[in-house]
Amino acid sequence: MGMAEPNANLISSDKVEGTSVFDVRGDKIGEIEHLMIDRVSGMVRYAIMTFGGFLGFGESEYPLPWKAFRYDTNLGGYVANVTEEQLRNAPEFNEDSWRDRDWETRLHKNYGSAPYWEDATTMRDPFPRY
Amino acid sequence: MGMAEPNANLISSDKVEGTSVFDVRGDKIGEIEHLMIDRVSGMVRYAIMTFGGFLGFGESEYPLPWKAFRYDTNLGGYVANVTEEQLRNAPEFNEDSWRDRDWETRLHKNYGSAPYWEDATTMRDPFPRY
Fold first, then answer.
1. Residues of chain A neighbouring B104 (CB-CB closer than 8 A)
2. Which of B19, B34, B120 sits opposite A3 (nearest CB)?
3. What is d(CA A25, CA B122) in angstroms, rounded to the nearest whole number?
4. pLDDT tens for residues A39-66?
5. In terms of domain of life, where is this protein from (chains A, B) (predicted)?
6. What pTM, to 2 d.p., does this model score?
7. Is the ipTM of this complex over 0.90?
8. For residues A44 and B43, is the Cβ–Cβ distance under 8 A?
9. pLDDT digits (tens, 9 = 90+) for A2-13
């Protein structure tokens, strides 16, 4: 999609729930339950997935780093670049996890994603190295 | 808030509705109805405000460019850097507006915000000028 084209990818925050998630082979494995958004920067940081029985993961919620997803316009959903092993090894999650930077660090490490707060530091670097 | 601190600003996409919006003097003028998110980049592009009678704007929805807002942690809500005149001059809005780049351009111009798709072009510049 060219940047000069109308943006068909805008979605309301209250309608993002239920978007399909596929594995890297293109098989549907679950859905987006909701997103976690940084209300200061306006950037999505996590997507919380449910598997609904796929892969035997039951109804639990699995938060994944935003960077583990790629939106596929043909599939009309997200491709999650994660393995079953990563999902099974994910650090335990509860509502307090969102205020636990150590948990966030372990989660990103588990899924092989660079922590988003390191991006922000780089972007704000007052002495960039050219 | 330091970037090494736990992030207290993460909010669920299904809970962002109802966040207070203040004017630049700190007076509450309305609420966030919902956000419009780019599902490819994961960036919030618009916040849709309702005034609930404030300033005589009734119950209509007013989409504003995301950049017109600043989150104020002390107020616990967004400060909207817009004037009554800008709100009254805003281009007419309907559900098709989200697929109308011309409407998006007029909206950003009305509120004096640089269009987000120009940011993206700059960020993706393959020949950056140092």
1. 6-7
2. B120
3. 33
4. 999 999 999 999 887 777 877 899 999 9
5. Bacteria
6. 0.83
7. no
8. yes
9. 444 556 789 999
